[in-house]
């Protein structure tokens, strides 16, 4: 993947527009997400490792909100289960176009990979096929809060026994002091990765209307209400976490 530096918010903007997953973002996305989300490389690679434990023969493995397909690539590096197919879905045309290129490049470099397809679609309107692994890697937080339960319910219906949903999200904390501490530590993480105070401030105002994090308790209850039988956190770095939800 290209590693062009993210300078989207490096110069002062008269009015900071709401964040969108457009061409400018797609071009610098690998750099942006690695410098903004603590633990991202570890989470992505280990989703592949975890998926290999849940994948069932002849089922779909979904990467929902795939962006450039980092999770899809990890699934293909680790899952060897017979007859599985990776289905990557995103509603950003700029992301989908590049994701297809990257998965083709992976095809040409490695043999015996699972087949993969990239669908440009809204995951809220997608008809899910029987699946043993669904990854929502930092995607649910961009879905309008009132539509999250219905989406999780449909994912639960598509999941087969022995499968799993892997849900990674930025967390909000109900305790005010904990929220403040982890927010300031996240800012320190971004600073340490070379973002200026201006970039951090402008990105914050761009994202605050489009990304709405929930607390761990809210996630857990919503997953249980959607029909999942258990919810197991497997990773947390600062205010970013990943959960395994079992059908
Ligand atoms: C990764 N999982 O690299 N339907 C389809 N896609 C959507 C929708 C929707 N309704 N809403 C948002 N998206 C990736 C990172 S990024 C997270 C995921 C981030 C897509 C959106 O276009 C974007 O590509 C992705 O969800 C969220 O592991 O940037 O923090």
Kindly describe this structure:
The chain has 247 residues and is an alpha/beta fold. It has a domain at 40-172 and 211-246: 3-Layer(aba) Sandwich (Rossmann fold). It has eight helices and seven strands, in the order H-H-E-H-E-H-E-E-H-E-H-H-H-E-E. The protein has helices at residues 23-36, 40-54, 70-78, 93-109, 145-158, 176-192, 197-207, 216-225, and strands spanning 60-64, 85-90, 116-120, 131-137, 159-170, 230-237, 240-246. Strands 3-2-1-4-5-7-6 form a seven-stranded mixed β-sheet, with helices on both faces. The radius of gyration is 18 Å and the shape is globular. The mean pLDDT is 96. Bound molecules: ligand GEK. Ligand GEK binds next to helix 3 and strand 2.
CATH third-tier fold name of the domain at 40-172 and 211-246: Rossmann fold
Unreliable stretches (pLDDT < 50, length at least 5) are none
Structural class: alpha/beta
The shape is globular
What is the H level of CATH, i.e. the homologous superfamily of the domain at 40-172 and 211-246?
Answer: Vaccinia Virus protein VP39
Cα-atom radius of gyration: 18 Å
**Which H/E pattern describes the elements?**
HHEHEHEEHEHHHEE
Bound molecule types: ligand GEK
List the helices and strands and how they pair.
Layout: H1 23-36, H2 40-54, E1 60-64, H3 70-78, E2 85-90, H4 93-109, E3 116-120, E4 131-137, H5 145-158, E5 159-170, H6 176-192, H7 197-207, H8 216-225, E6 230-237, E7 240-246
Parallel strand pairs: 1-2, 1-4, 2-3, 4-5
Antiparallel strand pairs: 5-7, 6-7
Ligand GEK binds next to helix 3 and strand 2.
């Amino acid at each position: 993947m290209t590693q062009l530096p993210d300078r989207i918010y490096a110069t002062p903007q008269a009015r900071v527009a709401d964040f969108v997953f457009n061409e400018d973002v797609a071009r610098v996305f690998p750099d942006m997400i690695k410098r903004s989300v603590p633990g991202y490389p570890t989470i992505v690679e280990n989703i592949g490792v975890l998926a290999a434990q849940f994948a069932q023969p002849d089922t779909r493995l979904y990467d929902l909100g795939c962006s450039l397909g980092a999770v899809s690539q990890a699934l293909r590096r680790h899952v060897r289960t017979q007859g599985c197919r990776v289905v990557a879905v995103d509603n950003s045309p700029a992301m989908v176009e590049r994701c297809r290129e990257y998965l083709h490049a992976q095809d040409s470099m490695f043999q015996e990979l699972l087949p993969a397809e990239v669908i440009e679609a809204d995951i809220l309107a997608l008809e899910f096929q029987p699946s043993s692994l669904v990854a929502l890697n930092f995607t649910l937080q961009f879905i309008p809060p009132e539509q999250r339960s219905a989406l999780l319910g449909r994912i639960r219906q598509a999941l087969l026994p022995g499968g799993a949903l892997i849900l990674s999200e930025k967390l909000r904390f109900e305790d005010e002091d904990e929220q403040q501490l982890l927010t300031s530590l996240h800012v320190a993480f971004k600073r340490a990765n070379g973002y200026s105070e201006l970039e951090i401030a402008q990105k914050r105002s761009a994202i605050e209307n489009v990304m709405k994090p929930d607390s761990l308790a809210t996630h857990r209850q919503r997953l249980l209400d959607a029909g999942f039988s258990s919810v197991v956190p497997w990773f947390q770095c600062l205010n970013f976490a990943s959960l395994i939800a079992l059908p």
